[in-house]
Write a structure and sequence with these properties.
Layout (H helix, E strand, L loop, with lengths): L5 H16 L2 H18 L3 H9 L5 H6 L1 H7 L10 H18 L1 H28 L16 H10 L8 H19 L3 H15 L13 H9 L2
Helix pairs in contact: 2-6, 6-7, 6-8, 7-8, 7-10, 8-10, 9-10
Length: about 220
Amino acid sequence: MRFFSRRSLSRLSAQVRRYVRSAPGTYLWLAGLFVTTIALHHMSPEFEEEFLRQRSTNIHELSTNPVRVLITSALWIDGGRWLPYAVLYSVFHAQAERWLGTLRWLAVVVLAHVLATYFSEGALLWAVHQELAPQSAVNTLDVGVSYALAGVVGVLTYRIAAPWRYVYLVCVLVLYGTPLLTGRTFTDLGHFTSVLVGLACYPLVRDRGEPWDPVTTVTRYRRP
């Protein structure tokens, strides 16, 4: 029994292509992450750790090669799981890029990634100086794209119409604030900082049209 006709599959394929083309920055980045993730799977665990450490935004690398590691750290996924990020990028990054445009979306991404990195690593450096963290923490492995993602999650608050905007905001603050209160690691601090950076990007969104109302969307699809 066929669940999808050839015509419906063709229509679905065309919709997917249009969606991808509407967020070129998101999907070019995601394609790059796919390639680097495949590369990681061909490395031995020992080589992979050292390889990523040299591309990590840890205290040592930030003090010697800041521009290089800020760029390269955003091109690798620690843990090698690409598919969950493909879903998250499609849900959050692609929506933000379609709404803001590629340049403004990229501005949010860069601000969240850079500011959260420096704030969290600065806090870790302070902890090392206060002997609250070991000296070895200056070489902590810290790569990945989660700070940029958290920043985009934050800025999307303004995409949603009130009162649903506030429901979304509370969920985001709980999601990123709970680990900060319970775990209190420098990465938890970085993620929460990224959300705040995204919220601080309001000037970039003020002229981007009317916010999205989920109730209106649901009502439209329920009409016969």
